[in-house]
Amino acid sequence: MVTTRAHLITYGCQMNEYDTHLVQSQLVSLGADIVSSVDEADVVLINTCAVRGKPVEKVRSLLGDLRKIKARRPLVIGLMGCLAQLDEGQQIARAFGVDIVLGPGSLLDIGRALEGNERFWALNFRDELHGHVPPPPQGTLQAHLTIMRGCDHHCTYCIVPTTRGPQVSRSPDDILRELDMQLAAGVQEVTLLGQNVNAYGVDQGAQLAGYPSFANLLRLVGQSGVRRVKFTTSHPMNFTEDVAAAMADTPAICEFIHLPVQSGSNRVLRRMAREYTREQYLKHVADIRRHLPHAVLATDIIVGFPGETEDDFQDTLALYDEVGYDSAYMFIYSPRPGTPSYTHFADLPREVKTERLGRLVARQKEWSARNNATKVGTVQEVLLRGDAHSSGFLEGHTRGSHPTVVPHAVGADRPGVYRVRIEHATPHMLYGRTVDTAGHDLPLIPATVDTARPEAAALTAPLPMA
Ligand code: SAH
Ligand code: SF4
Ligand code: F3S
Protein backbone atom coordinates (compact mmCIF):
# COMPACT_ATOMS: atom_id res chain seq x y z
CA MET A 1 0.00 0.00 0.00
CA VAL A 2 1.18 3.54 -0.70
CA THR A 3 2.12 5.33 2.49
CA THR A 4 -1.06 6.69 3.95
CA ARG A 5 -1.91 8.98 6.81
CA ALA A 6 -5.32 7.90 7.98
CA HIS A 7 -7.68 9.63 10.37
CA LEU A 8 -10.58 7.63 11.81
CA ILE A 9 -13.79 9.07 13.24
CA THR A 10 -16.27 6.90 15.15
CA TYR A 11 -19.98 7.36 15.81
CA GLY A 12 -22.31 4.90 17.53
CA CYS A 13 -21.96 2.21 20.13
CA GLN A 14 -19.10 0.30 21.77
CA MET A 15 -19.18 -2.22 18.95
CA ASN A 16 -18.29 0.50 16.52
CA GLU A 17 -15.42 1.60 18.76
CA TYR A 18 -14.18 -1.97 18.79
CA ASP A 19 -14.50 -2.16 15.00
CA THR A 20 -12.60 1.09 14.56
CA HIS A 21 -9.69 -0.47 16.50
CA LEU A 22 -9.85 -3.43 14.20
CA VAL A 23 -9.58 -1.24 11.10
CA GLN A 24 -6.88 0.87 12.71
CA SER A 25 -4.74 -2.20 13.38
CA GLN A 26 -5.25 -3.43 9.82
CA LEU A 27 -4.04 -0.08 8.56
CA VAL A 28 -1.00 -0.07 10.82
CA SER A 29 -0.06 -3.58 9.75
CA LEU A 30 -0.24 -2.38 6.14
CA GLY A 31 2.18 0.44 6.89
CA ALA A 32 -0.20 3.37 7.37
CA ASP A 33 0.24 6.09 9.98
CA ILE A 34 -2.74 6.94 12.15
CA VAL A 35 -3.09 10.71 12.57
CA SER A 36 -5.29 12.61 14.95
CA SER A 37 -6.80 15.27 12.70
CA VAL A 38 -8.33 15.66 9.26
CA ASP A 39 -5.72 18.32 8.42
CA GLU A 40 -2.87 15.81 8.69
CA ALA A 41 -4.71 13.04 6.84
CA ASP A 42 -4.85 11.93 3.25
CA VAL A 43 -7.50 9.31 4.10
CA VAL A 44 -10.47 9.99 6.39
CA LEU A 45 -12.56 6.99 7.45
CA ILE A 46 -15.87 7.50 9.22
CA ASN A 47 -17.31 4.57 11.16
CA THR A 48 -21.02 5.34 11.13
CA CYS A 49 -24.17 4.64 13.13
CA ALA A 50 -27.73 4.52 11.79
CA VAL A 51 -29.74 3.66 14.88
CA ARG A 52 -31.39 7.07 15.06
CA GLY A 53 -31.71 10.07 12.73
CA LYS A 54 -29.21 12.18 14.69
CA PRO A 55 -26.02 10.18 14.02
CA VAL A 56 -26.98 10.09 10.34
CA GLU A 57 -27.33 13.88 10.28
CA LYS A 58 -23.91 14.22 11.93
CA VAL A 59 -22.34 12.15 9.17
CA ARG A 60 -24.02 14.25 6.50
CA SER A 61 -22.68 17.44 7.98
CA LEU A 62 -19.18 15.98 8.40
CA LEU A 63 -19.22 14.80 4.77
CA GLY A 64 -20.23 18.32 3.72
CA ASP A 65 -17.09 19.70 5.43
CA LEU A 66 -14.88 16.98 3.98
CA ARG A 67 -16.20 17.62 0.48
CA LYS A 68 -15.01 21.22 0.76
CA ILE A 69 -11.53 20.07 1.78
CA LYS A 70 -11.47 17.52 -1.03
CA ALA A 71 -12.20 20.33 -3.50
CA ARG A 72 -8.90 21.96 -2.46
CA ARG A 73 -6.56 18.95 -2.12
CA PRO A 74 -6.49 15.18 -2.69
CA LEU A 75 -8.41 13.37 0.03
CA VAL A 76 -9.78 9.83 0.13
CA ILE A 77 -13.06 9.61 2.06
CA GLY A 78 -14.39 6.31 3.39
CA LEU A 79 -17.74 5.50 4.96
CA MET A 80 -17.75 2.38 7.12
CA GLY A 81 -20.09 0.62 9.51
CA CYS A 82 -23.83 0.57 9.99
CA LEU A 83 -24.97 3.49 7.84
CA ALA A 84 -22.66 2.36 5.03
CA GLN A 85 -24.54 -0.95 4.90
CA LEU A 86 -27.88 0.75 4.14
CA ASP A 87 -29.30 2.12 0.88
CA GLU A 88 -29.66 5.39 2.76
CA GLY A 89 -25.91 5.40 3.46
CA GLN A 90 -24.99 4.51 -0.09
CA GLN A 91 -27.14 7.34 -1.43
CA ILE A 92 -25.38 9.71 0.93
CA ALA A 93 -22.01 8.29 -0.19
CA ARG A 94 -22.86 9.00 -3.84
CA ALA A 95 -24.16 12.48 -3.07
CA PHE A 96 -20.96 13.48 -1.25
CA GLY A 97 -18.40 11.84 -3.54
CA VAL A 98 -17.30 9.20 -1.02
CA ASP A 99 -14.57 6.88 -2.39
CA ILE A 100 -14.81 3.85 -0.10
CA VAL A 101 -17.91 2.19 1.39
CA LEU A 102 -17.38 -0.74 3.78
CA GLY A 103 -20.26 -2.39 5.65
CA PRO A 104 -19.63 -3.62 9.21
CA GLY A 105 -18.96 -7.14 7.89
CA SER A 106 -16.43 -6.00 5.27
CA LEU A 107 -13.97 -4.02 7.34
CA LEU A 108 -11.04 -6.30 6.50
CA ASP A 109 -11.30 -5.10 2.91
CA ILE A 110 -9.80 -1.77 3.93
CA GLY A 111 -6.39 -2.75 2.52
CA ARG A 112 -7.81 -3.68 -0.88
CA ALA A 113 -9.97 -0.58 -0.83
CA LEU A 114 -6.93 1.68 -0.47
CA GLU A 115 -4.89 -0.14 -3.12
CA GLY A 116 -6.72 1.01 -6.20
CA ASN A 117 -7.80 4.38 -7.51
CA GLU A 118 -11.31 3.18 -8.18
CA ARG A 119 -14.29 3.61 -5.94
CA PHE A 120 -14.46 0.57 -3.68
CA TRP A 121 -17.70 -0.69 -2.17
CA ALA A 122 -17.98 -3.88 -0.06
CA LEU A 123 -21.12 -4.91 1.78
CA ASN A 124 -20.65 -8.58 2.68
CA PHE A 125 -21.01 -10.15 6.08
CA ARG A 126 -17.84 -12.11 6.81
CA ASP A 127 -17.17 -14.29 9.81
CA GLU A 128 -13.42 -14.08 10.10
CA LEU A 129 -13.10 -10.49 11.28
CA HIS A 130 -12.03 -11.33 14.77
CA GLY A 131 -8.87 -13.30 14.14
CA HIS A 132 -7.43 -9.91 13.23
CA VAL A 133 -7.93 -8.10 16.49
CA PRO A 134 -4.53 -6.97 17.78
CA PRO A 135 -3.44 -6.97 21.42
CA PRO A 136 -4.18 -3.69 23.18
CA PRO A 137 -1.20 -1.48 24.10
CA GLN A 138 0.63 -2.39 27.33
CA GLY A 139 -0.95 -0.74 30.33
CA THR A 140 -4.50 -0.70 28.93
CA LEU A 141 -6.87 -1.03 31.89
CA GLN A 142 -10.22 -1.40 30.20
CA ALA A 143 -11.07 -3.37 27.08
CA HIS A 144 -14.06 -4.45 25.04
CA LEU A 145 -14.36 -7.99 23.75
CA THR A 146 -16.93 -8.70 21.04
CA ILE A 147 -18.41 -12.16 21.61
CA MET A 148 -20.96 -12.04 18.80
CA ARG A 149 -21.94 -9.89 15.85
CA GLY A 150 -25.35 -9.14 14.36
CA CYS A 151 -28.82 -9.68 15.75
CA ASP A 152 -31.59 -12.23 15.16
CA HIS A 153 -34.36 -10.17 16.76
CA HIS A 154 -36.76 -8.01 14.81
CA CYS A 155 -37.75 -5.19 17.11
CA THR A 156 -40.01 -3.15 14.85
CA TYR A 157 -38.19 0.17 15.40
CA CYS A 158 -34.64 -1.12 14.98
CA ILE A 159 -32.31 -0.94 12.00
CA VAL A 160 -29.47 -2.96 13.58
CA PRO A 161 -30.46 -6.40 12.18
CA THR A 162 -30.31 -4.83 8.69
CA THR A 163 -27.01 -3.06 9.26
CA ARG A 164 -25.20 -5.84 11.05
CA GLY A 165 -26.89 -8.94 9.66
CA PRO A 166 -27.80 -12.15 11.45
CA GLN A 167 -26.25 -13.16 14.75
CA VAL A 168 -22.89 -14.95 14.58
CA SER A 169 -21.24 -15.99 17.86
CA ARG A 170 -17.48 -16.31 18.20
CA SER A 171 -16.10 -19.59 19.43
CA PRO A 172 -15.18 -19.70 23.12
CA ASP A 173 -11.55 -20.52 22.18
CA ASP A 174 -11.34 -17.43 20.03
CA ILE A 175 -12.82 -15.27 22.79
CA LEU A 176 -10.47 -16.67 25.44
CA ARG A 177 -7.49 -16.18 23.14
CA GLU A 178 -8.30 -12.51 22.77
CA LEU A 179 -8.88 -12.27 26.51
CA ASP A 180 -5.40 -13.71 27.12
CA MET A 181 -3.88 -10.97 24.97
CA GLN A 182 -5.81 -8.40 26.94
CA LEU A 183 -4.68 -9.86 30.26
CA ALA A 184 -1.07 -9.86 29.09
CA ALA A 185 -1.44 -6.13 28.34
CA GLY A 186 -2.61 -5.50 31.90
CA VAL A 187 -6.36 -5.19 31.30
CA GLN A 188 -8.31 -5.14 34.58
CA GLU A 189 -11.85 -4.75 33.27
CA VAL A 190 -13.26 -6.46 30.22
CA THR A 191 -16.73 -5.77 28.81
CA LEU A 192 -18.22 -8.55 26.68
CA LEU A 193 -20.10 -7.05 23.75
CA GLY A 194 -23.01 -8.22 21.63
CA GLN A 195 -26.46 -6.96 20.61
CA ASN A 196 -28.00 -9.76 22.62
CA VAL A 197 -25.36 -11.49 24.73
CA ASN A 198 -27.88 -13.76 26.45
CA ALA A 199 -28.43 -15.52 23.11
CA TYR A 200 -24.70 -16.32 22.86
CA GLY A 201 -24.11 -19.56 20.96
CA VAL A 202 -27.74 -20.06 19.91
CA ASP A 203 -26.87 -19.37 16.25
CA GLN A 204 -24.22 -22.12 16.36
CA GLY A 205 -26.53 -24.81 17.72
CA ALA A 206 -25.39 -23.79 21.22
CA GLN A 207 -24.34 -26.63 23.52
CA LEU A 208 -24.56 -29.18 20.71
CA ALA A 209 -21.67 -27.44 18.98
CA GLY A 210 -19.68 -27.29 22.21
CA TYR A 211 -20.53 -23.67 22.88
CA PRO A 212 -21.12 -22.83 26.54
CA SER A 213 -24.29 -21.02 27.58
CA PHE A 214 -23.79 -17.31 28.12
CA ALA A 215 -23.83 -17.90 31.90
CA ASN A 216 -21.02 -20.43 31.56
CA LEU A 217 -19.07 -18.21 29.19
CA LEU A 218 -19.31 -15.52 31.88
CA ARG A 219 -17.95 -17.99 34.41
CA LEU A 220 -15.06 -18.95 32.09
CA VAL A 221 -14.14 -15.31 31.54
CA GLY A 222 -14.62 -14.55 35.23
CA GLN A 223 -12.19 -17.32 36.21
CA SER A 224 -9.49 -16.19 33.78
CA GLY A 225 -7.79 -13.92 36.29
CA VAL A 226 -9.31 -10.69 34.98
CA ARG A 227 -10.32 -8.45 37.85
CA ARG A 228 -13.70 -7.27 36.56
CA VAL A 229 -16.13 -8.55 33.95
CA LYS A 230 -19.11 -6.61 32.56
CA PHE A 231 -21.33 -7.35 29.59
CA THR A 232 -23.77 -5.56 27.32
CA THR A 233 -26.44 -5.82 26.01
CA SER A 234 -28.71 -8.27 27.77
CA HIS A 235 -31.98 -8.79 25.90
CA PRO A 236 -34.70 -9.58 28.47
CA MET A 237 -36.28 -12.19 26.22
CA ASN A 238 -33.19 -14.40 26.32
CA PHE A 239 -32.27 -13.65 29.92
CA THR A 240 -32.04 -16.75 32.12
CA GLU A 241 -31.79 -16.94 35.87
CA ASP A 242 -28.50 -18.79 35.44
CA VAL A 243 -26.91 -15.50 34.33
CA ALA A 244 -27.88 -13.96 37.68
CA ALA A 245 -26.50 -17.07 39.40
CA ALA A 246 -23.20 -16.76 37.48
CA MET A 247 -22.96 -13.12 38.51
CA ALA A 248 -23.44 -14.13 42.13
CA ASP A 249 -21.08 -17.12 42.18
CA THR A 250 -18.18 -15.55 40.22
CA PRO A 251 -16.60 -12.65 42.13
CA ALA A 252 -14.99 -11.04 39.07
CA ILE A 253 -18.38 -10.50 37.40
CA CYS A 254 -19.58 -7.06 38.41
CA GLU A 255 -23.00 -6.74 40.03
CA PHE A 256 -24.10 -4.47 37.20
CA ILE A 257 -26.67 -5.32 34.58
CA HIS A 258 -27.87 -3.28 31.64
CA LEU A 259 -31.28 -4.73 30.80
CA PRO A 260 -33.09 -2.55 28.23
CA VAL A 261 -36.84 -2.51 28.84
CA GLN A 262 -37.76 0.04 26.11
CA SER A 263 -41.30 0.52 27.51
CA GLY A 264 -43.32 -0.37 30.59
CA SER A 265 -46.54 -0.89 28.62
CA ASN A 266 -47.45 -4.34 27.34
CA ARG A 267 -49.35 -2.79 24.45
CA VAL A 268 -46.26 -0.88 23.33
CA LEU A 269 -43.92 -3.84 23.96
CA ARG A 270 -46.14 -5.93 21.68
CA ARG A 271 -46.06 -3.30 18.94
CA MET A 272 -42.29 -3.13 19.33
CA ALA A 273 -42.14 -6.96 19.01
CA ARG A 274 -39.87 -7.13 22.06
CA GLU A 275 -41.15 -10.66 22.83
CA TYR A 276 -41.55 -10.18 26.59
CA THR A 277 -44.16 -8.62 28.82
CA ARG A 278 -43.77 -6.13 31.61
CA GLU A 279 -44.44 -8.98 34.06
CA GLN A 280 -41.75 -11.20 32.57
CA TYR A 281 -39.29 -8.32 32.69
CA LEU A 282 -40.06 -7.66 36.35
CA LYS A 283 -39.61 -11.36 37.09
CA HIS A 284 -36.07 -11.13 35.68
CA VAL A 285 -35.43 -8.13 37.92
CA ALA A 286 -36.72 -10.10 40.93
CA ASP A 287 -34.47 -13.05 40.01
CA ILE A 288 -31.47 -10.75 39.74
CA ARG A 289 -32.23 -9.11 43.09
CA ARG A 290 -32.69 -12.50 44.75
CA HIS A 291 -29.25 -13.65 43.65
CA LEU A 292 -27.62 -10.22 44.01
CA PRO A 293 -29.42 -7.99 46.52
CA HIS A 294 -27.10 -5.07 45.67
CA ALA A 295 -27.29 -5.41 41.91
CA VAL A 296 -27.11 -2.14 40.01
CA LEU A 297 -29.64 -1.97 37.19
CA ALA A 298 -29.51 0.20 34.10
CA THR A 299 -31.80 0.30 31.09
CA ASP A 300 -32.70 1.79 27.69
CA ILE A 301 -36.11 3.37 27.14
CA ILE A 302 -37.69 4.69 23.97
CA VAL A 303 -40.33 7.39 24.52
CA GLY A 304 -42.99 8.32 22.00
CA PHE A 305 -43.10 5.03 20.11
CA PRO A 306 -45.93 5.32 17.51
CA GLY A 307 -49.31 4.96 19.18
CA GLU A 308 -47.90 5.39 22.71
CA THR A 309 -50.68 6.96 24.81
CA GLU A 310 -50.33 8.93 28.02
CA ASP A 311 -51.46 5.77 29.87
CA ASP A 312 -48.74 3.73 28.17
CA PHE A 313 -46.18 6.34 29.15
CA GLN A 314 -47.47 6.30 32.74
CA ASP A 315 -46.81 2.53 32.71
CA THR A 316 -43.19 3.28 31.78
CA LEU A 317 -42.83 5.82 34.60
CA ALA A 318 -44.38 3.35 37.05
CA LEU A 319 -42.01 0.60 35.93
CA TYR A 320 -39.08 2.97 36.38
CA ASP A 321 -40.21 3.48 39.99
CA GLU A 322 -40.75 -0.22 40.53
CA VAL A 323 -37.20 -1.09 39.43
CA GLY A 324 -35.50 2.09 40.71
CA TYR A 325 -32.76 2.03 38.06
CA ASP A 326 -29.39 3.59 38.81
CA SER A 327 -29.10 4.92 35.27
CA ALA A 328 -30.85 4.88 31.92
CA TYR A 329 -30.28 5.77 28.29
CA MET A 330 -33.47 7.48 27.19
CA PHE A 331 -34.28 8.06 23.54
CA ILE A 332 -36.99 9.80 21.60
CA TYR A 333 -38.37 7.36 19.01
CA SER A 334 -36.67 8.02 15.69
CA PRO A 335 -38.35 6.53 12.60
CA ARG A 336 -35.75 4.63 10.60
CA PRO A 337 -36.48 3.97 6.91
CA GLY A 338 -36.62 0.24 6.28
CA THR A 339 -37.95 -0.72 9.70
CA PRO A 340 -41.50 -2.09 10.17
CA SER A 341 -42.55 0.71 12.52
CA TYR A 342 -41.45 3.31 9.96
CA THR A 343 -43.49 1.62 7.26
CA HIS A 344 -46.62 0.81 9.21
CA PHE A 345 -47.06 3.31 12.03
CA ALA A 346 -47.50 7.09 12.12
CA ASP A 347 -44.94 9.04 14.12
CA LEU A 348 -46.25 11.03 17.11
CA PRO A 349 -45.89 14.82 17.09
CA ARG A 350 -42.43 16.01 18.11
CA GLU A 351 -43.79 18.09 21.04
CA VAL A 352 -45.50 15.05 22.56
CA LYS A 353 -42.28 13.04 22.38
CA THR A 354 -40.02 15.75 23.82
CA GLU A 355 -42.46 16.56 26.62
CA ARG A 356 -42.52 12.89 27.66
CA LEU A 357 -38.76 12.62 27.45
CA GLY A 358 -38.49 15.63 29.79
CA ARG A 359 -40.67 13.91 32.38
CA LEU A 360 -38.76 10.65 32.09
CA VAL A 361 -35.39 12.38 32.44
CA ALA A 362 -36.66 14.13 35.59
CA ARG A 363 -37.71 10.74 37.01
CA GLN A 364 -34.33 9.22 36.14
CA LYS A 365 -32.54 12.10 37.86
CA GLU A 366 -34.58 11.60 41.04
CA TRP A 367 -33.69 7.90 41.15
CA SER A 368 -30.03 8.45 40.32
CA ALA A 369 -29.81 11.11 43.06
CA ARG A 370 -31.50 8.79 45.55
CA ASN A 371 -29.39 5.74 44.64
CA ASN A 372 -26.15 7.70 44.50
CA ALA A 373 -26.84 9.25 47.91
CA THR A 374 -26.91 5.76 49.44
CA LYS A 375 -23.28 5.31 48.33
CA VAL A 376 -22.02 8.19 50.48
CA GLY A 377 -19.91 6.72 53.30
CA THR A 378 -19.38 3.38 51.53
CA VAL A 379 -16.07 2.18 50.13
CA GLN A 380 -16.24 1.32 46.43
CA GLU A 381 -13.70 -0.35 44.18
CA VAL A 382 -13.09 2.24 41.46
CA LEU A 383 -11.24 1.81 38.20
CA LEU A 384 -9.59 5.20 37.76
CA ARG A 385 -8.84 5.78 34.11
CA GLY A 386 -7.08 9.03 33.71
CA ASP A 387 -6.85 12.60 34.58
CA ALA A 388 -10.15 14.46 34.77
CA HIS A 389 -9.27 17.38 32.52
CA SER A 390 -5.71 17.56 33.97
CA SER A 391 -7.10 19.14 37.09
CA GLY A 392 -5.50 16.98 39.75
CA PHE A 393 -8.45 14.61 39.73
CA LEU A 394 -8.78 11.11 38.34
CA GLU A 395 -12.03 9.99 36.77
CA GLY A 396 -13.30 6.44 36.76
CA HIS A 397 -16.21 4.19 37.58
CA THR A 398 -17.32 1.71 40.23
CA ARG A 399 -18.16 -1.96 39.73
CA GLY A 400 -21.74 -0.70 39.32
CA SER A 401 -20.56 1.70 36.57
CA HIS A 402 -21.19 4.88 38.57
CA PRO A 403 -18.91 7.64 37.26
CA THR A 404 -16.59 8.69 40.09
CA VAL A 405 -14.01 11.43 40.62
CA VAL A 406 -11.18 11.48 43.18
CA PRO A 407 -8.32 13.92 43.80
CA HIS A 408 -4.76 12.70 43.30
CA ALA A 409 -3.38 11.06 46.41
CA VAL A 410 0.02 9.64 47.27
CA GLY A 411 0.19 6.24 45.59
CA ALA A 412 -3.05 6.89 43.68
CA ASP A 413 -2.27 9.58 41.16
CA ARG A 414 -2.27 7.38 38.12
CA PRO A 415 -4.75 5.03 36.43
CA GLY A 416 -5.53 1.78 38.25
CA VAL A 417 -8.08 0.12 40.51
CA TYR A 418 -8.34 1.69 43.97
CA ARG A 419 -10.54 1.63 47.04
CA VAL A 420 -12.47 4.86 47.29
CA ARG A 421 -14.62 6.13 50.13
CA ILE A 422 -17.51 8.12 48.68
CA GLU A 423 -17.89 11.54 50.29
CA HIS A 424 -20.35 13.34 48.08
CA ALA A 425 -22.88 12.41 45.39
CA THR A 426 -24.84 14.15 42.65
CA PRO A 427 -27.29 12.39 40.30
CA HIS A 428 -24.51 11.90 37.76
CA MET A 429 -21.30 11.62 39.75
CA LEU A 430 -19.79 10.21 42.92
CA TYR A 431 -16.92 12.11 44.55
CA GLY A 432 -14.57 10.35 46.91
CA ARG A 433 -11.10 9.85 48.34
CA THR A 434 -8.80 6.93 47.89
CA VAL A 435 -8.26 4.85 51.04
CA ASP A 436 -5.88 2.05 51.99
CA THR A 437 -7.01 -1.47 52.83
CA ALA A 438 -7.59 -0.45 56.45
CA GLY A 439 -9.92 2.32 55.24
CA HIS A 440 -7.53 5.20 56.07
CA ASP A 441 -7.32 8.13 53.65
CA LEU A 442 -4.26 8.21 51.43
CA PRO A 443 -2.63 11.66 51.78
CA LEU A 444 -3.70 14.08 49.05
CA ILE A 445 -1.28 15.75 46.67
CA PRO A 446 -2.88 19.19 47.02
CA ALA A 447 -0.48 21.00 44.70
CA THR A 448 -2.07 19.29 41.71
CA VAL A 449 -5.71 19.91 42.65
CA ASP A 450 -7.47 22.71 40.83
CA THR A 451 -9.37 24.34 43.68
CA ALA A 452 -11.50 26.34 41.25
CA ARG A 453 -13.58 23.21 40.69
CA PRO A 454 -16.60 23.16 43.00
CA GLU A 455 -16.03 19.61 44.19
CA ALA A 456 -12.41 20.41 45.06
CA ALA A 457 -13.40 22.35 48.16
CA ALA A 458 -15.37 19.42 49.56
CA LEU A 459 -12.73 16.86 48.75
CA THR A 460 -9.62 18.69 49.84
CA ALA A 461 -11.00 20.00 53.12
CA PRO A 462 -9.36 18.25 56.07
CA LEU A 463 -11.55 15.45 57.40
CA PRO A 464 -12.81 15.78 60.97
CA MET A 465 -10.76 13.56 63.30
CA ALA A 466 -12.44 10.28 64.08
N1 SAH B 1 -29.41 -4.81 21.14
C1 SAH B 1 -29.70 -3.88 22.13
C2 SAH B 1 -29.91 -2.47 21.64
C3 SAH B 1 -29.04 -1.87 20.62
S1 SAH B 1 -29.54 -0.31 20.02
C4 SAH B 1 -30.97 -4.31 22.84
O1 SAH B 1 -31.87 -4.86 22.24
O2 SAH B 1 -31.09 -4.03 24.00
C5 SAH B 1 -29.41 0.66 21.49
C6 SAH B 1 -30.66 1.33 21.91
O3 SAH B 1 -31.06 2.28 20.93
C7 SAH B 1 -31.88 0.43 22.05
O4 SAH B 1 -31.91 -0.24 23.25
C8 SAH B 1 -33.03 1.40 21.91
O5 SAH B 1 -33.40 1.92 23.17
C9 SAH B 1 -32.43 2.51 21.06
N2 SAH B 1 -33.04 2.53 19.71
C10 SAH B 1 -32.95 1.60 18.76
N3 SAH B 1 -33.66 1.97 17.67
C11 SAH B 1 -34.21 3.17 17.96
C12 SAH B 1 -35.07 4.06 17.25
N4 SAH B 1 -35.51 3.79 16.02
N5 SAH B 1 -35.44 5.22 17.88
C13 SAH B 1 -35.01 5.50 19.12
N6 SAH B 1 -34.21 4.69 19.83
C14 SAH B 1 -33.81 3.54 19.25
FE1 SF4 C 1 -32.29 -3.90 17.70
FE2 SF4 C 1 -33.94 -5.46 19.04
FE3 SF4 C 1 -31.72 -6.49 17.94
FE4 SF4 C 1 -31.52 -4.87 20.04
S1 SF4 C 1 -32.52 -6.90 19.99
S2 SF4 C 1 -30.29 -4.79 18.16
S3 SF4 C 1 -33.18 -3.41 19.72
S4 SF4 C 1 -33.49 -5.65 16.84
FE1 F3S D 1 -24.14 0.41 17.07
FE2 F3S D 1 -25.34 2.35 15.77
FE3 F3S D 1 -24.68 0.17 14.52
S1 F3S D 1 -25.80 1.69 17.81
S2 F3S D 1 -24.84 -1.43 16.05
S3 F3S D 1 -23.28 1.62 15.46
S4 F3S D 1 -26.52 1.34 14.19
TrEMBL record:
Enzyme class, broadest EC rank: transferase
Cofactor(s) this protein cannot do without: [4Fe-4S] cluster
Principal place of residence: cytoplasm
Locations listed in the record: Cytoplasm
Entry binding sites for [4Fe-4S] cluster 2: C151, C155, C158
Cofactor comment text: Binds 2 [4Fe-4S] clusters. One cluster is coordinated with 3 cysteines and an exchangeable S-adenosyl-L-methionine.
UniProt KW keywords: 4Fe-4S, Cytoplasm, Iron, Iron-sulfur, Metal-binding, S-adenosyl-L-methionine, Transferase, tRNA processing
InterPro entries documented for this protein: Elp3/MiaA/NifB-like_rSAM, Methylthiotransferase, Methylthiotransferase_CS, Methylthiotransferase_N, Methylthiotransferase_N_sf, MiaB_methiolase, rSAM, rSAM_horseshoe
Reactions mediated catalytically: N(6)-dimethylallyladenosine(37) in tRNA + (sulfur carrier)-SH + AH2 + 2 S-adenosyl-L-methionine = 2-methylsulfanyl-N(6)-dimethylallyladenosine(37) in tRNA + (sulfur carrier)-H + 5'-deoxyadenosine + L-methionine + A + S-adenosyl-L-homocysteine + 2 H(+)
Radical SAM core domain: residues covered: 137-370
UniProt GO molecular function: tRNA-2-methylthio-N(6)-dimethylallyladenosine(37) synthase activity
Domain MTTase N-terminal: 4-119
Binding site for [4Fe-4S] cluster 1: C13, C49, C82
Enzyme Commission number(s) from the entry: 2.8.4.3
HAMAP family linked to this entry: tRNA_metthiotr_MiaB
Complexes and interactors: Monomer.
Family under the similarity heading: Belongs to the methylthiotransferase family. MiaB subfamily.
PANTHER family linked: CDK5 REGULATORY SUBUNIT-ASSOCIATED PROTEIN 1 (PTHR43020), MITOCHONDRIAL TRNA METHYLTHIOTRANSFERASE CDK5RAP1 (PTHR43020:SF2)
Function field: Catalyzes the methylthiolation of N6-(dimethylallyl)adenosine (i(6)A), leading to the formation of 2-methylthio-N6-(dimethylallyl)adenosine (ms(2)i(6)A) at position 37 in tRNAs that read codons beginning with uridine.
Name the UniProt record assigns to this protein: tRNA-2-methylthio-N(6)-dimethylallyladenosine synthase
Organismal lineage: Bacteria, Thermotogati, Deinococcota, Deinococci, Deinococcales
